[in-house]
TrEMBL record:
It comes from bioreactor metagenome. Keywords: Molybdenum cofactor biosynthesis. The keyword Transcription regulation does not apply. GO terms for biological process: Mo-molybdopterin cofactor biosynthetic process. InterPro entries: MoaB/Mog-like_dom_sf (IPR036425), MPT_Adenylyltrnsfr/MoaC-Rel (IPR051920). This is MoaB/Mog domain-containing protein. The keyword Cell wall biogenesis/degradation does not apply. The lineage of its organism: unclassified sequences, metagenomes, ecological metagenomes.
Amino acid sequence: MPTAVLSRGLAGLAGRTLVVNLPGSRGGVADGMAVLGDVLLHALDQIRGGDHPEGRA
């Protein structure tokens, strides 16, 4: 679909706030939240200055 590039998700920080954009469809949001749920605690830990466990990058 030619407009697919318009739904490419981005994430970043605004100060110490995690900002994530998700697609406009309910299915796209559900998929995005499922993926985000797996990494959210790690992302928040990194924002707070956490480090990776020994031997992992």
